């Protein structure tokens, strides 16, 4: 009888162990096989993505997924991160280090030359490609909006914008170009009459001093507008910036600093100089908000305070929506306002309008 009871107990123990093992196997989260040719990110939802780490800044991780293309992921949604190549990180205290990156269980580690260095994850400011992989530090965009009319009205308008950015763990370089052109054909004379012709090129170089403060080490702008009577205007400046808001959906920066401007006019009145030089003050702000996962709102405003002869107050505002369509294609709806406080009269004493407004719908490509 005892033998029978022992056999029953052994059978029940074996059955319970098998059930427990099966339950554990069903509940255990699957872990991918980490292939060296991919970077890996695990979300707090336990989903894994493989692809390439582009950068992390402003509490947002840019990750180029192999299947889902470029994704912007809130840093709070990242549970684990592994890199296939050496990356560069910058900490709040200014420390810069390079190595193979592993973020796991709330800890950050860098592996380089067989040695592992641990950092406090909460003090991480940014992640970028190592200087060894220079091409990975760059990204850019191209947008084109055009209007072509034939028939009773013959007209051609276009707005072309393009830009590049190089972002490392300690610095950021940006350059943006905008060209606006419009003409129509006079039906009576068949003469092409230009009604808009302007160019603006801006570039900045920022150095991340801390998590909140950045130094604008260099700022440059080239501007030309035939109908504003500006042949060319060159502006140089430096400044300091501050992150007012920096969370998962909203960023808001302000910057200020001294500048110097040289302006050459197309035409001037008799006995007037055709160029003006002026020291000034440059003030600016940039705001962005993630409306939804596919729609972003952005606003950029810059004002230069110069001498009255050079234009007095020079305002430039750009605001609008960027809507993701498919892959790297975007639909952009952008509104521009330019205001010159004291426009320069031409040789015929015609004074240009102070305000210019434009609403542009364009198709863009990010690379």
List the helices and strands and how they pair.
Elements (H helix, E strand, L loop, with lengths): L1 H26 L11 E5 L4 E10 L2 E6 L3 E6 L3 E14 L4 E9 L2 E6 L2 E5 L4 E6 L8 E12 L5 E13 L3 E15 L6 E17 L4 E13 L4 E17 L3 E16 L9 E16 L4 E11 L7 E14 L2 E12 L14 E12 L1
Antiparallel strand pairs: 1-2, 1-5, 2-3, 3-4, 5-6, 5-9, 6-7, 7-8, 10-11, 10-21, 11-12, 12-13, 13-14, 14-15, 15-16, 16-17, 17-18, 18-19, 19-20, 20-21
Distance between the termini: 79 Å
Can you tell me the CATH architecture of the largest domain?
Answer: Beta Barrel
Percentage of β-strand residues: over 45%
Q: How do the strands line up in the largest sheet?
A: 10-11-12-13-14-15-16-17-18-19-20-21
CATH class of the largest domain: Mainly Beta
Helix share, percent: under 10%
Q: pLDDT below 50 for ≥5 consecutive residues: which ranges?
A: 18-28
> Main beta sheet, described?
12 strands, antiparallel, barrel
CATH fold node name of the largest domain = Porin
């Amino acid at each position: 009888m005892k033998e029978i009871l022992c056999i029953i107990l052994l059978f029940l123990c074996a059955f319970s162990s098998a059930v427990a093992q099966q339950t554990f196997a069903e509940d255990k989260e699957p872990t991918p096989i980490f292939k060296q040719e991919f970077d890996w990110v695990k979300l707090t939802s336990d989903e894994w993505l493989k692809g390439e780490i582009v950068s992390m800044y402003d509490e947002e991780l840019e990750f180029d997924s192999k299947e889902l293309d470029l994704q912007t992921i809130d840093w709070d949604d990242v549970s684990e991160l592994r890199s296939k190549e050496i990356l560069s990180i910058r900490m709040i205290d200014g420390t810069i280090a390079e190595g193979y990156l592993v973020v796991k269980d709330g800890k950050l580690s860098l592996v380089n030359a067989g040695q592992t260095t641990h950092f406090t994850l909460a003090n991480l400011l940014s992640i970028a490609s190592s200087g060894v992989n220079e091409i990975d530090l760059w990204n850019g965009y191209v947008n084109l909006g055009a209007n072509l009319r034939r028939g009773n009205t013959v007209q051609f308008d276009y707005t072309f914008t393009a830009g590049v950015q190089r972002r490392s763990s300690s610095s950021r370089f940006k350059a943006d170009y905008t060209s606006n052109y419009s003409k129509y054909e006079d039906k009576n004379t068949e003469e092409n009459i230009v009604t808009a012709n302007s160019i603006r090129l801006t570039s900045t170089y920022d150095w991340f001093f801390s998590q909140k403060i950045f130094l604008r080490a260099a700022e440059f702008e080239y501007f030309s507008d035939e109908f504003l009577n500006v042949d060319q205007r060159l502006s140089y400046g430096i400044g300091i910036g501050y992150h007012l808001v920096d969370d998962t959906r909203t960023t808001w920066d302000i910057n200020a600093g001294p500048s110097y401007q040289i302006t050459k006019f197309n035409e001037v009145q008799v006995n007037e100089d055709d160029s003006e030089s002026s020291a000034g003050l440059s003030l600016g702000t940039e705001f962005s908000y993630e409306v939804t996962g596919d729609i972003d709102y952005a606003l950029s405003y810059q004002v230069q305070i110069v001498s009255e002869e050079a234009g007095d107050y020079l305002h430039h505002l750009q605001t609008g929506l960027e809507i993701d369509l498919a892959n790297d294609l975007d639909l952009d709806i952008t509104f521009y306002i330019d205001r010159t406080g004291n426009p320069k009269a031409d040789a015929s004493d015609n004074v240009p309008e102070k305000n210019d407004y434009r609403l542009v719908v364009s198709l863009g490509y990010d690379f």
